[in-house]
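Hello again, I could really use a second opinion on something today. I've been staring at a protein lately and its backbone has me curious. Can you walk me through what the tokens say about the fold? Take your time with it, there's no hurry, and the full record follows here:
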Amino acid sequence: MNRRTLLIGSSALGLAAFAGGAFVLNQRRAAEAEAAAAAAPTADQALLVREYSPSFGPADAPVTLVEFFDPSCEACRAYHPVVQEIRRQFPTQVRVVLRYTVFHEGSDEAVRILEAARMQDKFEPVLDALLEQQPGWAVHGAPQMDVAWEIAGAAGLDLERAESDKLFPGITGILNQDAADVEALAIRQTPTFFLNGKRLENFSADSLIADVRFAVENS
């Protein structure tokens, strides 16, 4: 056996070991997801999803991921691409529902921007723009909401129409109902995720995707 054969053999063994390690890791994540799902209590569905809640994906999808998020929250901004990746990987199997959790100053007005955008069928581009450019407006203690409006306008929102739409009483009703549900569910931080009615604890970007995949594969 020459040196080249030895090197090729060593590489093959290394790849096999890596593949085996990945398989074991996936098995472990699946086992953890199964254990967590079995242990976690199921939340009242009426508190998790309201008829008016913004959502993406089929209404009859077998898996529902509910995110309680604050437009001003840095962690929510960080998890936004993760949720988008979940939507990309499972376009028909997962429904993503968003609930407003206004913990930061200025977040209530950010919700009004988003809801005004929804009235104009501009919700997603405005949401993406506000989160992408969040550091420019969501200054804790001194939010610059005029900047947030400018960002929304650049994303396609008709600002003149939105000036009146943002005062629509229904938006106040959404804010009040979401706040009541946040309190009833004891939401204390954002983002908080519920997967098929069960709260996810100690999650990461990788584990969130793994948990959703497990739910899809076992739905």
